[in-house]
């Protein structure tokens, strides 16, 4: 058992914290750091509406994975954090922020689901995982993504408005990845087709 296991928030230590929530907390912390530069766990908790213990835990996890580092202290016990200068997050520039982190957390959550599905309540052992291949132009691919995003709009406010959730609603990971399939080459690397 590690220090982080011992200091994990109660819902994570018990194994009941979902990967979706972990993903949300870490993404919000990274967004906040990108916006303000440096924060302590207490400051992050105040700005994001989480407990300082939860923020502290996830800040340490982000540091452990190389995304953030301790910022210089200005005295006292406060422990400020900042984005690492050459972290995967900082290096992504204006592209999709935190994409690699998000994909890693999604994959981790999926693997947890597969390994612990039988422990879920009987009415929660069902999933709707599927994949498909479609031949689309870049414009069609963007339209498909927009349709999926629009179909989720009626449910967006439930994250921050618990009273809007119907009885029995629980967090569900919704992961969509639309990307061109590249041909396999003899050297094991894909190479984009020229048109």
Automatic annotation (TrEMBL):
Transmembrane segments: none annotated. SUPFAM superfamilies: Winged helix' DNA-binding domain. InterPro entries: ArsR-like_HTH (IPR011991), WH-like_DNA-bd_sf (IPR036388), WH_DNA-bd_sf (IPR036390). This is ArsR family transcriptional regulator. Signal peptide: none annotated. Gene3D superfamilies: Winged helix-like DNA-binding domain superfamily/Winged helix DNA-binding domain (1.10.10.10). Residues 1-22 are annotated as: Disordered. It comes from Streptomyces nanshensis.
């Amino acid at each position: 058992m590690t220090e982080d296991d011992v200091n994990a928030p109660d819902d994570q230590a018990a194994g009941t914290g979902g990967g979706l929530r972990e993903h949300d907390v870490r993404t919000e912390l990274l967004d906040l750091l990108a916006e303000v530069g440096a924060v302590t766990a207490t400051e992050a908790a105040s700005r994001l509406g989480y407990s300082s213990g939860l923020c502290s835990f996830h800040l340490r996890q982000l540091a452990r994975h190389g995304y953030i580092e301790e910022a210089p202290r200005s005295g006292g016990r406060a422990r400020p954090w900042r984005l690492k200068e050459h972290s995967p997050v900082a290096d992504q520039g204006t592209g999709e922020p935190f994409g690699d982190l998000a994909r890693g957390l999604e994959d981790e959550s999926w693997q947890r689901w597969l390994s612990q599905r039988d422990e879920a309540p009987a009415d929660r052992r069902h999933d709707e995982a599927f994949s498909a291949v479609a031949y689309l132009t870049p414009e069609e691919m963007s339209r498909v993504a927009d349709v999926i995003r629009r179909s989720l709009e009626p449910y967006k406010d439930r994250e921050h408005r618990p009273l809007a959730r119907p009885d029995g609603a629980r967090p569900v990971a919704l992961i969509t990845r639309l990307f061109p399939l590249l041909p396999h080459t003899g050297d094991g690397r894909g190479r984009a087709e020229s048109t």
